[in-house]
Amino acid sequence: MNRFGIQRPLSKKKCFLILSLLPLYFIVVGLFMQPVDQIFRGIVEIIREPDFLITDYFVIGGVGAAFINAGVLTLICIGIMYALDMNFDGHTVTSTCLMFGFSLFGKNLLNIWMILVGVFLYARYHKTTVKRYLYVGFYGTSLSPIVSQVMHIVDLPLPLRFLLCAATGIIIAAVKYPCAFFSQGLFSLQRRICRWNYCDRDRIHPEILWRNH
């Protein structure tokens, strides 16, 4: 707050630090919920879990291991955004909260990376910065249980299963952004149709409505 009583906005660094308090809190809580040796075993069980349908990590690894898995993944998400010098906006908070929430029943310290690598390769292919696709990539990690399922449902040697998982994650990343862009276009078209229907119903000239919106 300056001498005129006007509160200054927080810097980007402070915003990311405040956002980091959420996962840090649950990591500390997780350390008190279980002994450390049980936490490590629980995280290993979480990583090894096939993640069929909705898998409750509280049941698989314990409350402490689930909290630490979610907290560490969320901190990694925040760290990547801060390292890439991304703007702090609504997508930052939304992707962080979704990362934490889904890390309690599907995402783990292993299965998200193939999708994020796919996002990086997608950006390199289009010769643009990864910051353009990162939020879509974070949202796309909600499909990361598919990577775990592929690892367990096929009866192949481990190296081949790993390559198949990598291909699955990269394909998810490659189709995620075009699908998101197409869905945004459909939503925009729907809004235009609704506006035209509103014009026709009330006999308002469309140019007047477009000018007012």
How are the elements arranged and paired?
Elements: H1 12-33, H2 36-48, H3 57-60, H4 63-83, H5 90-102, H6 113-125, H7 134-140, H8 145-153, H9 158-202, H10 206-212
Helix pairs in contact: 1-4, 2-4, 4-5, 6-7, 6-9, 8-9
Q: How would you describe what is shown here?
A:
- With 213 residues, the protein is mainly α.
- It has 10 helices and no strands.
- The protein has helices at 12-33, 36-48, 57-60, 63-83, 90-102, 113-125, 134-140, 145-153, 158-202, 206-212.
- The longest helix is centred in the C-terminal third of the chain and has 45 residues, at 158-202.
- The chain is flat, with a radius of gyration of 22 Å.
- Mean pLDDT is 81; it is low at 208-213.
List keywords for this structure.
mainly alpha, 213 residues
Question: How do you describe this structure in short?
Answer:
This protein is an all-alpha fold. Helices cover 72% and strands 0% of the residues. The chain has 10 helices and no strands.
